[in-house]
Amino acid sequence: MKTTGPYDKNFEAILHASGIYGYPYIGPKTMSSVVPLNLEEMIERANEPRPSVTPVTIPSSIFELFKRSVMRAKNESEVVKYFVPILEGGIRVENQGSKNISFSNSEPLTDANIEQRALVEGTPDRFYGTSFERLCEEHQIFFLELKSPWGRQQTANFQAQYHGALGERGQIALRSWGHDASVLDGKAHTISCTFVSGTVRFYAIHAARDIDGRIKYFMHGIDAFVMDFSVLKFRNAIAAFQNLQNYSEEKRNEAIELANTRAQEIREAS
Questions:
Q1: Rounded mean pLDDT of the chain?
Q2: Are strands 97-98 and 215-226 parallel, antiparallel or unpaired?
Q3: Which of 162, 224, 237, 196 is closest to 79 using CA atoms?
């Protein structure tokens, strides 16, 4: 079967037809329904000072290296090689960072009633999830999409939108485990991040139920940082990445605890 992916012209139309919307949102729903209830909380977290990101830990020499290596990178693999270690700092091992792995076991996100080509398997440049020991399967909740200096922001946004919706669906499944219907709280539990041409952008992904009961997914901007203009903004972007990665981990752990508690209640009642 032929597939459609973020580089295809009709990819956005297929996502919209299946209830997966990007940022900024253009559609029939009111703006209040497409903004996550915890957006301000996420904005505040992104901009919190981070003790591990200072002029001592991130000196100007790192900023200069970033401009020489990342901003002149010839391809995405070079961006990953030089840029990802700077962004991640000490969080990678703790939070199960993985890259270029296809979500081959995921159910399709698109509407089965719509005649269309299947979407490609989700393959984010980098994602962060829970180890198999924490739950019966791994759940990803923070995604990073990277492009070379010649890459397109629109393509990165489509990837962030698609992979973020996959991650948020997993979070809803966790939070709804043991219930008769999906449990939605109006909040975003998944974050997607893009890096294109020196700018890092953060997006929240949340779900809302339509009037017909259908679940739809919305991507909304959290904040953006131009990293190649000043060392101050460079450090702010690194702090925001690590702050929001920690925030997503908190949401992930919360979902796991809810699922495990519900499982315990069911076992005790049986």
A1: 81
A2: unpaired
A3: 196
3-state secondary structure the chain: CCEECCCCCCHHHHHHHCCEECCCCCCCCCHHHHCCCCHHHHHHHHCCCCCCCCCCCCCHHHHHHHHHHHCCCCCHHHHHHHHHHHHHCCCCCCCCEECCCCCCCCCCCCCCCCCCCEECCCCCCEEEECCCCCCCCCCEEEEEEECCCCCCHHHHHHHHHHHHHHHHHHHHHHHCCCCCCCCCCCCEEEEEEEEECCEEEEEEEEEEECCCCCEEEEEEEEEEEECCCCHHHHHHHHHHHHHHHHHHHHHHHHHHHHHHHHHHHHHHHC
Residue 118 φ/ψ region, left for φ over 0, alpha for ψ in the -120 to 50 degree band, beta for the rest = beta
Report the DSSP beta bridge partners of residue 191.
Answer: 142, 204
Amino acid letter, residue 110? T
pLDDT at 230 over 50: yes
Written as six digits, the tokens of 252 are 């992930």
Residue type, 135: L
Question: Which residue do the tokens 């890096």 mark?
Answer: 195
Instruction: Output the pLDDT for position 124.
Output: 54
Q: Where are the domains of the chain?
A: 3-269
- 140-146 and 126-129 strand pairing: antiparallel
Q: Which two tokens stand for residue 184?
A: 């939605």
Q: With 70 as the cut, is the pLDDT of residue 235 above it?
A: yes
Q: Residue count of the chain, please give it.
A: 270
